[in-house]
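#struct-queue
[09:14] JT: dropping the first one here, sequence first, then the C-alpha cells:
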Amino acid sequence: MNKLAWTLVATMGISLCATVIEPGKLPENFDPNKVEIRKLVESTPRGGLPNFYAKLDSKQDTVIAYFGGSITAQAGYRVHSLKYFQEEYKETKVAEINAAIGGTGSDLGAYRLEHDVLKFKPDLVFVEFAVNDGGASPYSIRQSMEGIVRHIWNELPSCDIIFVYTLTAGNVKELQDGKMQRSASVMEEIADYYQIPSIHMGVEIVALEKQGKLLMKASNEGMTRVSGKELNLSADNYVNAEGKIPFANDGVHPYDNTGHALYMDAIKRSLPAIKSTGKPGPKANLPKPMVPDCFENVITIPFGNPTVKLEGPCQKLPKDDPVTRHFLNRADEFYVFEPGAKITFKYKGLRAAIYNILGPQGGIIEIKHNGKISREARMFDPYCTYHRLATVGLPNAKDQVNEITITVLDKNFDKKAILFDHNKPDFDKNPAKYEKLRLFAGCIFIVGEVVP
C-alpha cells in the first residue's frame, strides 16, 4: 500500500491485519453461511493481472469487460479506467465491454455472464457487485460470485479478474470504523481462495468525509475546480461553494468529476502493486469449489427451444418493439405473454429463473411446481414507471426433475397503490400506460440441465 493509502488508513485508526484464506485451501472451520468481517484496506494484489499486462505489453488487441450494476454503468470509473489504459498503452488497441445493468446483483450476473461477457472473449473482467449484493446472504453471494469466477476460468482460463468495491452513504460509518461491508468481506474470501486482486475504491472517500472535506449527498451546482496539491487529489476534482467535495446527489451514484474521479484515483494507486505480481499462464486445475452448489454451470434456454411448451396468447416480439428493443443487448429475443398464456418446461439442477422485464404493463404470474401451485409473482413494483430487467426465481427440488408451469393471470391489482408516492402522479397522468397485465420475458436460465 502506498504512502497516501497508509496515511488515510492511519487517519481512521484502521489495523491492517486480517484473517486470510490460503489459496485453494478452506479452513477446517469454514462455514459458508457466515463471514468474518474484513479490515478495510484499499487494495490487495494477490495473484495480480499477469495475463492482462502481458498482452498489453506485447501490443496485442486487448478487451476489458466491466461487469456490475448502475455504478459501473455510469460514465465514471469504467470510462476513466479504460481511458487510462488506452493512454498508458498507446500502441495497443484497448476496447471495452460495458456489461453493467443497474439495480442488479451477482445472482443475475452469474446467469447473464455468458451472453454479456464471455462471448466477447475479454482479457480482463472488472467485477463490481458489492453494493447491490448488500442485502444478500453470505451463502447466496458465494454461490453467484464463485460461480462467476469458475465460469470465467472454465471457459477463458487466461482471462484475468479483479474485484472492485464501491460504497453508498449507508456504508460510511462501518468503513470509517475500519470494517468492509459484509458483501465485500464475503467477496474477499473468494478473492483469497482464487488469488484474485481487489480494490476497495471507498477508502479515500470515507477518510475525506470524516475530515469534513467531502459530502456523500450534495448538489453539484456551483462546483469549481480544486487544487490537486491542496487535498492530495487529482486536479479533476471539484468543490462546492463551501469548499467541500460533493460525492453524489443520492449518496450512491457518484458524480463523474468528483466521486468517480476518487474511485479512479484508488485504481491508479493500486495498479502498480497489482502489475508487479503474478506470472502469466492459464488458470488450469481449479481447486474444488468453496460451495459445491455455486453457479458455474449456467445454461440459457430460449422460449423457442423445443423443450419449452408455449400455450395461449403469446408471441415473439419484433426487434423494434417499443418496450423490449432497449434490452436486446442483454437478450437475443423477447416474448410477450398475455393473460391465459402458459410456459411449461422441465429441468434438473440447482436453480432456474425467468429473465423478465418489470414495468408499467406488468401483470401477475402463477408458478406451479410439479403440478402444485407454488406462488404468485407480480411483474410490477414501486419503481415501475419505466421498464427494467429482472429475474423470477423458480421452485427447485434438488436431484429431482422439476416441472415448471407459469401462467399469466387475468387478475387486476391496484398498481397506483404499489408505486412510490413520488411515482403516483405518473399513474394519474397516464392511466392507460398501466392497463395491461403482461409478462415480457427473454429466456430461461438454468443452473443444471433442461429435461426433454
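[09:21] JT: and here's the second one, same format:
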Amino acid sequence: MLAGRKDCHDLYAGYHDTDKELENLYQYANYYTKIPVDKRTVRAFVALVSDSIKYSPWENVGYIDPPKLITNPVVVPTTAGETADPEGASPENVTQYDDEQSVRLMTQGSAEHQLNEDWVVDYFADAGWTVKQLDTEATESVPDIWIQKDEIEYFVEVEHKGTDQPANVLTNAARAAHYDMDVIFVVKKKSIAQSIAKMLREPVTDTDVHNGAQLYTMSDELTLTDGSKPVLPPDVESSQWYLRYQEPPEAEAEDDDDIGARSPSQIEPELRLETPDGEVLAAGSVDESVATWEFEELLCESDPSAADRTNVHGPFVPTQLAYLARSSLRYRNGDQLERLDPNEYPANWNQSDAAGKRERYKNAYETFVDRYTVAVDYTEIEKPDFITPMNERIYKPQTSRKAPGMRESGRALWQFAERKSRDNNALDLIKNRTWRWPHDVTSPDMSFVGHSTVLSELGLEE
C-alpha cells in the first residue's frame, strides 16, 4: 500500500532504502523501477501519478498496452480516448475528490470497491466474456458491470460492503428484475454469499409481524420533492418502515355476500413509518412515491430547531416475491470465483432424502406459509398461485434435491393453511391469508425507474 506523495515519488523514481543517493532523483530522472504487473494493477498505479512526473514509466514496457496517464482530470474518462459527460463532474454527482481534485462518481463506490470491481472485470474478460464497466460511464443508476458471451448476458454486481447495506443489494437485484436480466453477485467470502442469499429469498428485514412485514431502510437520507429532508421528532432516535394490512371491513350479517373473499388487490397493505413504540409518523399507499408524502408532523433538517435530530431514510419496497431464481452468487477463492452451490444455501428445511422427502416438503411449506403469507380475514390465494412460485422461486434455487409436484405440495400445504374449495371442488384456495408484501408493484422511488441512456445503448428497455 502506498501511504502518500513521497511513497509515490519513490516508486516512480526507482528510489529504495538501500541507496539514499536516489532519494531526490524523481524530480528529473527518466528511468523507473520495473515491476511486472497485470492490467488490474496498472489501473491502480495510474491513479498515483503525480504532476512532477514528465516521462511515462510505460514507454519501454512491451508485454502490455501502456495506459493513458491522467493527472488532475476534470471528469473521469470512460475508456482510453473517450471523455465522460462533463455534467458527471457536477457536485451532486461526485462522491469524493482526492487530494489533487480528481473526481470519483457516486456510481463507482469507494476506491476499494473499484479495485474489487477491476479484478472482476479482468476475471470475466480473461474468460472470454465481452465486458463493459457501466458505473464508470454514467451517474444514473446502473449495474457495476455488464457481460456477454454466446448471446448470454448478465448484470454483475460487486458487493464490497456485503451485508452492511441490504437495501442496496436488493436494489441491485430489483434493477435486474426490472430489465428482465439475470444477475451475478460477487463477494469476498462464502459466508457473505450465504447472507446475501437470505436477503434475496426474503427481501424484507422481518416477517415476525402479525399483520405485514418490516422493510429494509435505504442508506441514503430521504429527500422530498421540494428538496427538503425530514427529521425525526426530538425524542425519537430511530424509525422503521412497515407494510401493514388494515383491519378488514365488517359484514352487516354473517351471510352478507358482499363480505365474501377479497383478493389482495381489494385489501392492500399500507406503507407506514413508525417509531419503535409503534407510533405512526407517516403512512401512504405502497405504489406512491414517499418523496411526495406530506410529513406534516416532522421538521426538515434545514429548520434551526432540527439540529442533532435523526434524518428519515426511505424504505426498500420489494418489487417481487423473491430474487433468488435469477441470481447467481459467487465468492472469491484465491484467483477464482466459486459459485455458491444451492445445497450450501442456509435453508433449515433442506433435509436429505434419507430423512424422508415428505418431511422435507412439510418443513419447507411450513416455512413458506409462515414467511411469505399473513393472516388477513376475507382474503384468499389460489393453490396454484401459491405452490408454483414457492417451488420455482424459493424451493428450487436453494436445493438440488427433488421438488414436490402439485399433489405432494398440496399435501404439505394443507397442514399449515386453511383450505376452501370453489367451482364444485375443482379449485382449492388458501383461506384468510394473503401475501406479506406485494410482488407486482415497483415503487416510483426506485433509483432505476425511468429511462437509462447507458442500458438502452445495450438494447435493454424497461
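[09:30] RK: nice, looked through the second one.
[09:31] RK: Residues 227 and 291 are 9 Å apart (CA to CA).
[09:31] JT: good to know. The chain is about 20% helix and 20% strand.
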